Amino acid sequence: MIFNKLHEWNVSPEQAIALQRTLASQIVQEDYLSDVQFIAGVDMALSLHHGRGRAAVVVLTYPDLHVVEEQVHEDVLLMPYIPGLLSFRELPCILGAFEKLVRIPDLIMVDGMGIAHPRRLGIACHLGLWLNIPTIGCGKSILAGKYDHNALSEEKGSCTPLISRGTIIGQVVRTRTKVAPLFISSGHLISLKTSVEYVLACATKYRLPEPTRLADKLSKDKTRSL
DNA sequence: GCGACAG
DNA sequence: ATCTTGTCGC
To answer: What residues correspond to the site Interaction with target DNA (predicted)?
Structure first.
């Protein structure tokens, strides 16, 4: 598939932050989804010496969740990991995997934050803008905001708002009973409510929803080099 | 100013 | 994220 080249990737941390501020104003938090027939999951694995990375994208049917396409792409990492600037480290490689994709997904689930980010531009938002496809941020740990731990019961499906500066930036969602929750937020072209619905619909047997769980597994595939 | 900090 | 074996619990 093809996408919009919004900017260069070899930028300084200061330039990256400036870009995030500009891009954040372009994020759409309303639902603009077409009939969702295909959902993709994306994740990335890093090499032993953190010199290279391998991005994996898995496309599954919805709501049956059957895999219809898988693509991986390896590349050198340009930037180190800096909290808040994750997309500048991982997206170049992830976009390489999307270039190889034949089946265009209607919705994408990303391993990382959406707008639940210091400048409201997590990796899911950034990817959504480059692809112009709805994206959901599915983080395994918190980056920004706070929530009432007591408002989250042990049962699957339980959730409580993630709040920052007086506004709801995401939902802390329990995808499995008695298992650590996930931090869900809108990426681009989708509402928070709809995001949570899709995550729960794809969280069948594990903590991670099937799209990102399978992408995570594929990126770590031991039968490949790196 | 101090501490926290997705993957 | 990654380094790593067995082990507790449903």
So the answer is: 81
